[in-house]
Amino acid sequence: MFTHLHIHTTQGSLLDSILRVEDAVKFASENGMKAMALTDHGSMASFVNFVKACNKYEIKPIIGNEIYEVDDMWEKADTKEYSQPRYHLILLARTQEGYQNLIKITSVSRTEGLYKKPRVDIKYIKENGLGKGIICLTACQAGRLSRYLTNGKYEEAEQFVGRLKDTFDYVVCELQSHNTEDQANANKLIYDFAQKHNMPYTITTDAHMLSDSLKDSHAMFVEIGEGREVGESYTDCYLQTEDEIYEKLSGQFSEDVIKKGIEETVNITDIVETVDIGLNKGNIMPKIDIESGFDSHEDYLRHLVFKTFDEKFGHMSEEEQEIRRHRLETELPVLYAVDYTDYFIMLYMLAQEARKRGIPLGYSRGSGANCLCLFMLNVTQIDSVRWDLDFSRFANLGRKSMADFDWDISKRRRKEMVEISEELFGKENVAPIATFNTLSTKVAIRDIGKVLDEKEDSPYYKQIPYKLRDEVAKMIPTIKTLNDLGEEEEKDVLLKDILNKNEKLKEVYDKFPLWFKYVMDVEGLPKSMGRHAAGTLITPTPVTDYCPLCYDSEKNIMIELEMHNAMDDLGLVKMDYLGLETLDIIDDTLKMAGITWEDVDINHLDLEDKAVFDTVYKNGNTVGIFQMESAEARRMCIEAKADNVEDIIVVNAANRPGTKESFPTYCQNKLHPESVEVLHDDLRELFGKTHFILLYQEQALQLFRHAGFPEDQVDNARRAMGKKIKAVMEGLETDFRKGLTEKGWNNEQLIEIWQLMLKQSEYCFNRGHAVAYGLLSYLTAYLKTHYTIYFMASLLTSKSDKVQKISIVINDCKRLGIKVSPPNVNKSDMEFTALPEKNEILFGLLAVKGLGESIVYKIIENRPYQSMNDFVEKVADKTAIITLIKAGAIPTKDKMLSLKKYANSLFEKKEYKPVTTVPSPYSKLIPFGLDVEDYRDGKKVDKDRLLVDYNKAKEKIYIDEQNQKYKKHMVEFQEKYAKDEYMWEFDTLSMFLTNDPLKDAYKYTKTDWDMVEDGDKTTLFCVIVDIKRKKDKNGNQFAYLDLYTPFGIIEATIWSSQLKQFSDDVKKGNCLAILGRKREEHFFVEKIKPYNTWLEQMRKKGVAV
To answer: Which of 211, 665, 757, 913 is deepest in the core (most CB within 10 A)?
Structure first.
């Protein structure tokens, strides 16, 4: 039975294949095939999923790679005259050694050999012994053998194959089952070559899709992804059955020849050994060295846990200490049993080194806060007993998966955490993890519709205009989910899942079925690979013992695998180092205020500070407050009248998909306890902290425990509900109902609580994470309340490169009575500077647009400056000087005058240098208005007098020319640098700081962009800071506008009809009042008035608020 030895899949052959791994292996199984090879383009990104699928369908996996081989992998400089050709070559791992060598070949090709494509040369493979255990196939028409033979380079073909034989275990010529003229020609030449040299040959299909019916969808995917048309290059590149191969090649070869090629696929399958990739072998921990004097790693962990006991709990009563001692004695045996010992020691080592270096760490992330042992190790700062956090949510005897602790660390110092990992565990044993971005349904609808509308040979040529594409895309709903970092993100619902549930979509489908078919065939496919925001792999031996390496977009090393393959499938240890800007804001605030992290230790800080709740949370004044800046979080704080830490923790947890629905009940129950009704009295104790709503995962654990579930099964029951496996769910419900019935629950109550558990199972939030983040939020609010000016200065520094955010912070400073002043070359530091004695914040020099670190260092090093001339002389940087004049950083009463003076100084005035001789012949004097006859005395010419007058005339012309050059210089300078003075401050500081043109608007309105509901109309007061004019399909001009508002930069669209009507108003720098509609944070213009006109009308009405 035929074996496919050359296939490409979506994740490994990005934007080139639409063949999913699962579909490929399932095809092999359904067609009685015993094995299959994976050979993606220069990549092994899919090999783990491939082996998993093969195991599932009982298919023998053959791991391979279609590499790009070149003459010299170190040559990376194409010229117009010469571009080094790349050739394809199939490599298959025959043995375990071959598999390890294939990883190394892939790694070097995707790092050191990378140039446009991952590349390697045969010489490198041979010299490093990497061909051992590898079978080589000569690949497709892009292979060197095919190219040489079709170009008549027979001798070169022989030499090439000789090199392959010297390098690899087994070399096979490859014919392809494609019915095209070019392939038929190549097949004949390769077959004849194999016969002449007594070489084996085999047959492949070079599959990029599941079936031939998908060829148009594949072509569309490649076109929208890479912008290229495929032509005939993918003809018959699908998973063919054995019968189809005979049919395709019947016009090229006899049945015996085809049969022998198919038999060779079976031969290759037989000689390939089963390779062990380490799937499901348990956790693979890095090597951990412990201090001497301990009998085991368990004893050492116990020592580390208890050595901080007195420091952390010595101030507590004996009763409180005993509770925590008992908790630790409960946790440790579980940690030993689930094999977390070395992992915890590893976390301790990382935390200890980070704190030694003074790297700010978050309180906790995820369920780590639920573990008291991590608090004792100083890995977290959360006392899980104080906050009533269920340890079984983090670890329990029923949970066998690897522990997964995520770190929040200083964003600016994140790289140091990776360096610490490399120092502790070995540089070659540490590498970031990959992540794959997918083609969203909305993008597929728009892009495919555009191609179909614009291509003349399309059946829908000029039938799918932009408006229709946009309308259809907007019909696709999004769902909010939590990503693997616990952060909320939106994802499109797949078209195939909702088509039959939406009548409008069905109408469009009936009219354009091909459009929708293409979309449904490619939506959700991987389109690019990137570097995971936080995930870093740490292995006991070099990473390349487990998986291949590659470069990210900035040429940093990372692995090719995504998180779940590396961690869940191969059992490798992953650390998530997530850079958190809030930690830098806190750290900067503390340093400016002259205090330390110990001074605001969350375990000793006053968490009942009324001023914090009154000034920040209750009124929604949450600019800069961690997790509370969004419009939704502000609303929730106000609605709950947040006046205690539990409120903050609840808002953090409830402001998520699904859980928001229960928040009004929380507020109602909190604010009106006298009218609270609970489903059953048992819930008064179980759900008391959340005013009787089911919000936390830990509450689900408590409920299962209350229903009598064994301790080692409560978390498994919670997780099983989330997976919604019918058979498991039925068993769970039976046991759940039985347990609660014994507690006195009636049938109606049981039905209602079970439905609530089902509904919330996908969205319930981990209380440990909510506590940690809620407390970090409280710390930011505490600092904003008691160290206000330092906090706001730190906040401004953190937002200095974010135009949309910085104006919001400036406005909050105004609300707080803090003046934010323009930069000053003699006083400003790199960052924003707090001047508490003046209640003023000085603009940071690095926040000035166009100034880099080097010039800012120079400005600071060379001060003080006595005058502008002194500054110009010392700094001598034209761009910086112009920018700083415009920004108001060089003190002056008249910026324009200063700029003109500087322009004047740039013009080099040259003195006229008199000539010493009169020109010859004398006719050259005529252009200067001189006649030699006027200087004759008889026949003799008075040359001295003539020379004087000649120089006078020449000097006058020279001066006139200099004046003209000066005027031209000043005009050009004015045109380039000195236009639109009213925009200078915005252009350099990203805001209007000293002269806000919109300051009077908010006397007459309470408009708050964040509070405007999606789809509602509102009036924005704004300055147009940028205009991008476009044309629609009918040639009508419309525009995208960037609007400066007190809420940051808001992007707006003004369609052609409104643009014609209000063309006089739509100009850069114009202050306007614009009526429009908010849709998904975008603003669509309907009507425009000049701001002053609107303001005057409001003054006459006298409707100030």
So the answer is: 757
pLDDT tens-place string over residues 588-600: 999 999 999 999 9
Torsion angle (degrees, nearest 10) of CA 455, 458, 463, 465: -40
Collapsing DSSP states into helix, strand and coil, what is residue 1085?
strand
Q: Give strand pairing partners of 574.
A: 537
Query: What are 819-868's pLDDT values in tens digits?
Result: 999 999 999 999 999 999 999 999 999 999 889 999 999 999 999 999 99
Structure tokens at 1068: 């850069």
d(CA 634, CA 651): 9
Q: Does position 792 have pLDDT exceeding 80, yes or no?
A: yes
CA–CA distance, 686 with 567 (Å, rounded to integer): 34
- Measured between alpha carbons, how far is residue 504 from residues 473, 498, 510 in Å? 12, 11, 10
Supply 759's token pair.
């509904």
- What are phi and psi for residue 135, nearest 5 degrees? -95, 140
Q: What Rg do the C-alpha atoms of the chain give, in angstroms?
A: 37
By the 8 A CB rule, do 73 and 124 touch? yes
Copy the structure tokens of residue 86.
């790349």
DSSP string covering 79-119: -SS-----EEEEEEE-SHHHHHHHHHHHHHHHTTT-BSB--
Alpha carbon of residue 703 to chain centroid: 38
Beta bridge partners of 1073: 1021, 1089
Structure tokens at 70: 């070149």
1088 by DSSP, 3-state: which? strand
What is the residue type of 1076?
G
Distance CA 346, CA 335 (A): 14
Q: Give residue 1103's pLDDT.
A: 59
- 773: closest CA among 600, 652, 632? 652
Report the phi/psi class of residue 808: left, alpha or beta, with left for phi > 0 and alpha for psi in -120 to 50.
Answer: alpha
CB 93 within 8 A of CB 272: yes
* Structural contact between residues 155 and 183, judged by C-beta atoms closer than 8 angstroms: no
Cα-Cα-Cα-Cα dihedral of 312, 317, 318, 324, to 10°?
Answer: -40
Q: What is the rounded CA–CA span in Å between residue 334 and residue 338?
A: 6
Q: Is the pLDDT of residue 808 over 90?
A: no
**Quick check: 399 and 385 in contact, CB under 8 A?**
no
Residues in the chain: 1105
CA neighbor of 403 nearest in space, from 575, 580, 578, 579 = 575
Calpha distance 435→534 (Å, rounded): 10
- Give start and end residues of each alpha helix (H) in 845-983: 853-861, 868-875, 878-887, 895-906, 943-977
Quick one: which H or E segment has residue 284? none
Smallest Cα–Cα separation from 532: which of 622, 401, 435, 609? 435
Q: End-to-end alpha-carbon separation of the chain, Å?
A: 83
Residue 836, SS3?
A: helix
